[in-house]
Amino acid sequence: MANLLITGGAGFIGANFVRHWRASRPDDGIVVLDALTYAGNRPSLDGVEDIVFVEGDIRDEALVSRLMADHAIDRIVHFAAESHVDRSLSGPAAFVDTNVRGTLVLLEAARAAWLDKGSGTPHRFHHISTDEVFGTLGPQDPPFRETTAYAPNSPYSASKAASDHLVRAYHHSFGLDVVTTNCSNNYGPYQFPEKLIPLFILNALSGRNLPIYGDGMQVRDWLYVGDHVRGIELALERGRAGETYCIGGGQELANLQVIDTLCAAVDAAFAADPDLARRFPDAPPAKDRPTATLKTHVTDRPGHDRRYAIDEGKARRELGYAAAHGFAEHFQATLQWYLANEGWWRAIQGRAARVRD
After folding, report:
1. Which residue range or ranges hold the NAD(P)-binding domain (predicted)?
2. Given 57, 82, 131, 221, which residue is catalytic?
């Protein structure tokens, strides 16, 4: 039996991980620590039984240390982060404070509990990072892998790179058992509606424009969140101490391809279910117009990375990781989730800035 402290567990990926872990390991202890800032949403954990939820900040040293002791924590899964590039361009300081200093506080608490006081008790600190720390790729460049040099291009990715380096340093300097995973663009249920896919789904349902940065040909490796949390589980259980693993979906798609898939899927959903026109009367299909008429191109954001791609070969060889399904299937499931969970996104929609990946 393990006792997990999951930071940012009310966020998008964190909530999916909590749900996955509780379903597969019903006897483990789970403490969720989340500050419930704009992207944290307590209802994302509704129905998950036998968890301890603590509203609090990872930068609160006394709180983190108390949770470690009171719940005999032996694993930390660290999701909590400021994570949106557009927001980091307008307010970089918050990203450095949370992503760098917050990670440092957690590492110090872990070192004190597991090494200084615990005399080397079995433990693991799993740090969730991003492929954005590697910078951008040209059209013919090989995908990112664990040995790719860091070259972050935004305050967000720079803050995540710094936190990655801290985690690595605590392994090499103090012997802390750590694993880091760098993932590609996630999508799926419970994603806060400022990211491209949920934002554009909700915009389409409301008849609002679909704002496309530049020419829309920025390429991303799309990873379904269910595949990602399985990859995290494998790294947590099987990963070698001190190692990093790249977790990808194997689905390189330009933003325009994703948006065209979304528009076609929304049109098909309205054709298959006439009640959607009653529920969402402002959507173009409710007025016999294609969703694609909402597409509009806007000025590209500063320093926008052109292409991300992940080589997950190491995770496949060492962990047995593989994405289960392709984008088309998982996107359909994602769209159906948002159509079926209108109450969830209506309650938080006002908190979402109209920005995107």
Report:
1. 5-331
2. 131
